[in-house]
Write a structure and sequence with these properties.
CATH topology: TIM Barrel
CATH superfamily: Aldolase class I
CATH architecture: Alpha-Beta Barrel
Structural class: alpha/beta
CATH class: Alpha Beta
Strand content: 15-25%
Length: 281
């Protein structure tokens, strides 16, 4: 069933489990995520991000994700992640996405608050939830890499004010996490997660989930993280599945699809177990 994030994440926060968000830039990824969620009776969030639109355009993602979510036997939120432009967020709304992340975290605090509040007003009028980001989650490599990540950590006091003013439904926080592969084991600021959760009272979001340890996830969820973003792990698993298929003699794309899908399903299954969302649908 197609839902937005609000009730899904509020339940997760209250009952102290996490809900996985998995980017699905093709049909095989979408099948791997939704079929596994159905098998495990788990709520799930699936979608794409603005930086991934070079792989599959937004309208094409909507064509397969929205119907699949509607037909699913478990709650499925279709989320547009890291929306960087107002125009693309509006396109996602028109296409039927039920949740929007409007990422204005690279702007000044004042501009971030103003723009996200405007997005919340529009989306809430349409029954769509909004995720904001305060602080800035950088990348482990490339142009998004931060020299001193701790300079961009989320301030608990500003988080309280930001949530109060914008009315966002979920808040992505910068607490030592980063997008992509970690060169070294990350060190999350758990005290900061706990303080932000207590001050804001809303579900928190952990970006850059691929590469964290099992204990990191479990502790973060216990302290207030309700949504965890996963892409790198599932993306790499799909590639490994194809390589396995080739090594075992698969000679066509049709023969490779089961290898790709099963490898990704194994990751989704592992994360649902780890986050504690099995049998929570």
């Amino acid at each position: 069933m197609l839902v937005n994030m609000k009730q899904m994440l509020e339940k997760a926060k209250t009952e102290k489990y996490g809900v996985g968000f998995f980017n699905a830039v093709n049909l095989e990824m979408a099948r791997a995520v939704i079929e596994t969620a159905e098998e495990m009776k788990a709520p799930v969030i699936v979608g794409t991000a603005e930086v991934l639109l070079g792989a599959t355009d937004l309208k094409d993602v909507a064509k397969y994700l929205i119907p699949m979510a509607k037909e699913a036997s478990v709650p499925v939120c279709v989320h547009y992640d890291h929306g960087l432009t107002f125009e693309r967020c509006m396109e996602a709304l028109r296409l039927g996405f039920t949740s929007i992340m409007y990422d204005c975290s690279v702007l000044s605090y004042k501009d971030n608050l103003k723009k996200v509040k405007e997005m919340v007003d529009i989306c809430h009028a349409m029954g769509v939830t909004v995720e904001g980001e305060l602080g800035h989650v950088g990348d482990n490599a490339g142009s998004g890499k931060l020299e001193n990540p701790s300079d961009y950590y989320t301030s608990p006091d500003l988080a309280y004010e930001f949530v109060r003013e914008t009315k966002v439904d979920a808040l992505a926080v910068a607490v030592g996490n980063a997008h992509g592969d970690y060169a070294f084991p990350p060190k999350l600021d758990f005290d900061r997660i706990s303080e932000i959760s207590q001050k804001t009272g809303i579900p928190l979001v952990l970006h850059g989930g691929s590469g964290l340890s099992d204990d990191d996830f479990k502790t973060a969820v216990k302290l207030g993280i309700s949504k965890i973003n996963i892409f790198t792990d599932i993306d790499k698993a799909g590639k490994a599945g194809i390589e396995k298929g080739l090594a075992e003699g698969a000679k066509t794309m049709m023969a490779l699809i089961p290898y790709e899908t099963e490898a990704m399903k194994n990751v989704v299954r592992e994360k649902i177990n780890l986050f504690g969302s099995e049998n929570r649908a």
